[in-house]
Design a protein that fits this description.
This protein is of the alpha+beta class and 170 residues long. The protein contains five helices and five strands; from the N terminus they run E-E-E-E-E-H-H-H-H-H. Strands 1, 2, 3, 4 and 5 form a five-stranded antiparallel β-sheet that branches. Helix 1 packs across helix 4, helix 3 crosses helix 5 and helix 4 runs antiparallel to helix 5. The relative contact order is 0.12.
Length: 170
């Protein structure tokens, strides 16, 4: 059963435009006026998306620490860290019952890509004395975004499968 919140004015959309939130028990949906009828769309969990993208920064930070300390980490460490981050992403999105898990994790992957590009741009001049990474070779930005969006897509599909399995058991 859905409950409807009170209408709110939406600035910049005209004098009669309103935003109504509907709680469906799983997520808040926004109802926005359209031409002659109402459309609903679930809100995206932006704090979760950005937090998951930031969490994945553990990967490049571990690589930097490894290079700076001279610690000889196992060659499987990057793969293990990626799998742990992926498991956290899937669990966080599946357990929070996010309405659109695939889109949420694709955006988390893109957020991580942007964060890592910016981190590289900030830290490489400080640590190496020159700009390195995707900002130094802009053609590399597209593959970084593509690979991390694909990572989000795979984890998003897994989260969706976990959600569906949990809903069928309930």
């Amino acid at each position: 059963m859905a409950t409807v919140g009170s209408p709110r004015d939406v600035t910049g959309m005209g004098p009669k435009a309103t935003r109504i939130e509907i709680w469906t028990g799983r997520t808040v949906c926004e109802v926005l006026p359209s031409v002659g009828f109402m459309k609903t769309r679930p809100s995206l969990p932006w704090p979760l998306i950005l937090a998951l993208g930031a969490l994945a920064l553990v990967r490049p930070l571990l690589r930097i620490l490894d290079a700076r300390t001279g610690f000889d980490s196992p060659t499987s460490l990057p793969l293990i860290v990626t799998l742990v981050i992926s498991a956290v992403w899937v669990a966080a999105v599946a357990l929070s019952r996010t309405a659109r898990p695939v889109l949420t994790l694709v955006l988390a992957g893109l957020a991580y890509a942007v964060f890592s590009i910016l981190l590289s741009g900030l830290l490489s001049p400080l640590l190496d004395g020159e700009l390195r990474g995707p900002l130094a070779t802009p053609i590399a930005i597209v593959p970084v975004l593509t690979i991390n969006a694909a990572w989000g897509l795979v984890t998003g599909v897994l989260a969706l499968l976990v959600q569906r399995g949990a809903l069928q058991r309930a």
